[in-house]
Amino acid sequence: MPSSEIHQTDRLHGLDALRGTALLLGVVLHASMSYFPVTIWIVPDTDNSPVASVIFFAIHLFRMTAFFLIAGLFAHMMLDRRGFLGFIKDRGMRIAGPLATFWFPVLAAIIAGLVWMAAIRNGGTIPTDGPPPPPLTLETFPLTHLWFLWVLLILYVAMLILRAPFAMADRDGGWGRFVDRITGALIGPWTPALMAAPLAVAFWLTPNWTPFFGIPTPDTGLVPNATALTAFGTAFGLGFLLDRRRDLLVRIERLWPVFTVVALGVGTAALVMVGGPVPELAPVADPELKAPLAAVMALAVFASTFAVLSLALRFASGYSAVRRYLADSSYWVYIVHLPLVMVGQILVVNETWPWFVKFGAVIGGTMAISLLTYELLVRHSFVGGWLNGRRVPWRRQREAEFAAAE
Prior knowledge:
The chain is mainly alpha-helical and 406 residues long.
């Protein structure tokens, strides 16, 4: 019997765990960038390996599309429970608020890391002849790794606007039943291909598209690129519809062998097509090559997304105190991790250790500091209530864990 049928609770522990994992994998993703066999990062290390680029590629394929799909499902759940005004209040506090609060300190810390690395390269002194920073405009605004909060806000607004006329017209539930039937038809072994179709077109239409990086990260500019909006918007929209049809999660769960095999096969093909473990980072210019690359990369994105979604539903739907703690902490960890990753990479850049030792040290140090600050400064304080929607009192932590399992 599928685990999602055994654990019928309002809290979808498997999806909660996957959402947290997607954020925590950001630490691994950014840590790996120093150890690529080609330079792509502001802290390049001479000790490197093609394995690091494979790790990056595998994580980058599914991480944020899976996150936005789950975000869409939880958005519908919250809107249904709290209503229009309650939804806006909660998202304003827990999404817009952290973005406004943490953006500048995070950016300042990243700039400090850049200056530190420049000084190392300059023999210990800060260079004074560097180019001036670009002017701050709508196109150059540096959202840093907090871009996902901005995109979430855009998708929330779009969702509320698009939903409004249907909600007003659907007095007898006819529209809702029609949409639910459409959603049911979308879910099956064919789902990754259906979801990949608009993304493949977006890839093909993207000028100067670098296939290895797949979806261009919308971390610069307040208007996200069309490819990212296509990928994350369709994932968010499907997640929104899936919350109306929770029964379809069981269907997705049962397809985990199919989704996993397809993801491994298509993901491997995509890696080979973009140059293998030592990637080719030049934009693809040949239209005859670009079309199949776009199709395979788009299918790899959504096949891997549905593979991890089905695996989470199959194997993580039960309550786990460890998984719940990490899911709760993941928001804070992701907000603070990038400057910590940069510091770790800089501290070990001149060491003679093997690349994987440095890689592990950067991840371990970042996670240790992030989780320690979460436990001491966030989880049991008003900040925990702000970010996670609840504050866990020190003396009642065990009781809270048992309550969360119910």
